[in-house]
Known about the structure:
This protein is mostly helical. The protein is 61% helix and 0% strand.
Amino acid sequence: MKRVLCALALTVLVATPLYAANEQQPENIAAKMAVKFGRGVTNMATAVVEIPKQTVLMGRDMGVVGVLVGPFSGAVMTVYRAVIGATETAFFMVPAPGYYDEMIDPEFVWAGWGPKHQQKVTDEPEPQEQEQPAP
Length: 135
């Protein structure tokens, strides 16, 4: 009987932290809701910055054509960012998408001004080691 009680107590001690780890703490949930709400309000307020941002980015990538097309792309992105911001603000209590993850990438308008990450592609194959003849 003593062994059964020890095994039961050991099982409860081991299983309790595993069960508690799966549940989110109320403080974490409230913090993530606040971040989602703030992100939504910020995106609504700063959505108009997409116009100069897209003009600069497209001008850098496409030259003169990008400078001419950039404001139109920026206007579309302004509407998109404002709608996403309004959606996040209205539904800040809903843990979607993911677990209060951002709905737009980049998360804020001031992110993503850097150059695109491009992989370096070369036509030359990597040099292979040549076997030395044995003397």
